[in-house]
Amino acid sequence: MVNTHNQIRTGNTWVRFLSKLLVFTTLFLIFAGALVKSHEVGLSVPDWPTSYGYHIFFFPFSDMVGGIFYEHGHRLIATIVGMLTVVLAISLYISDDRLWMKKIGFTALGFIIIQGIFGGLTVLFFLPTPVSVIHAVLAQTFLIIIIFIAYGLSNEREIRIKAELTEGDDTLKNPVFLVTGLVFLQLTIGALMRHTQSGLAITDFPLAGGYFFPPFNQAMLNALQNIQFESGLPLATMNQVLIHFLHRIMAVAVGCAVGWLSLKVFKKYKNNTKVFWNAFALDITILIQIVLGAFTIWSVKEPLITSFHVVNGAIILGLSMLMVLRVSPVRLQGNY
Questions:
Q1: How does residue 164 score in pLDDT terms, banded at 50, 70 and 90?
Q2: What is the pLDDT, as a whole number, of residue 267?
Q3: Residue 299 banded pLDDT, cuts 50, 70, 90
């Protein structure tokens, strides 16, 4: 049984590479989608699944100008991610002996199909907020699934099994799951903030409407609206202000949770290089995210900065999910 196991895993080298490639292309897709929203060009190509009547791969590159460049480019990348997912799902079904891995491969395929449908619905129904938010959340969920697959195929997991290091780490379990849950919730709130046009509902940082602890009264709203009026920005409603501030509060919660996790790791797990550097990478990306969030406001949502803020959030989610897998018992990830 062990020999068969080793043979199958060795034969999956190229599938392992494909899973890792799909992780990075998914992150690139999230970045491309963020550029579409940051430039507010989601309807620059008004039809779907075609682009101005063309099949997606036959649309003239010479016509990819302005908003069309971002929107049609996003569709091209999404199609490539979909094709890679089809190849991965079929490859896992053919080459992997684990039933759970076959199932998760086709789960990923199902998610990318649903994601594509919701992407089309955002265009056909003129960017309705609920559909757009679901589209964004599905992208983050798909990333988690692909990371799960990549770790299931990884040499790291194989080494844990062969060294009989299949148990998890109860000390890190609670902070790791807390971090991952909070990050996912924060990204959901971030999507809601972006798609309700609440990104500049509060125009200052680190203060909020001139307050450390905003009163959320009419005086505060008037002060914010005066700044927005003078800057030529849309006037915010109180609901938009609340959504924006909730995003900031959640950022503090995520930062505290990551700090708690890192403190535990740096005190007791310096010899576990994988976990140690995973925690260090989380710390660095959290700091980068804070800086990007600040510059998003200070630059009045400059598209490139805003888009990097979005994709860096996805990277934080990916690192959190990877940490979950590294400290969880292997048996909970499926049979060996």
A1: low
A2: 87
A3: very high
Q: What is the DSSP letter of 62?
A: G
> pLDDT over 90 for what percent of the chain?
84
CB 82 within 8 A of CB 139: no
Q: If you average pLDDT over every residue of the chain, what do you get?
A: 92
The strand pairing partners of 54, in sequence order, are 51
Q: Which of 254, 253, 221, 213 is nearest to 240 (CA)?
A: 221
What are the residue ranges of helices labelled H in the chain? 2-11, 13-38, 67-95, 99-124, 129-152, 155-162, 170-195, 218-231, 238-268, 273-298, 303-327
CA distance 8 to 5: 5
d(CA 118, CA 83): 17
DSSP 330: G
Q: Are 146 and 108 in contact (CB under 8 A)?
A: yes
Q: Tell me the DSSP string of 214-233.
A: ---SHHHHHHHHHHHHHHTP
Confirm if 25 and 78 have CB atoms less than 8 A apart: no
pLDDT band, very low/low/confident/very high, at 329 (cuts 50, 70, 90): confident
DSSP codes, 189-217 = HHHHHHHTT-TTSS--SSSBTTBSS---S
Average pLDDT over residues 95-115: 95
Residues 207 and 248 sit within 8 Å (Cβ to Cβ):
no
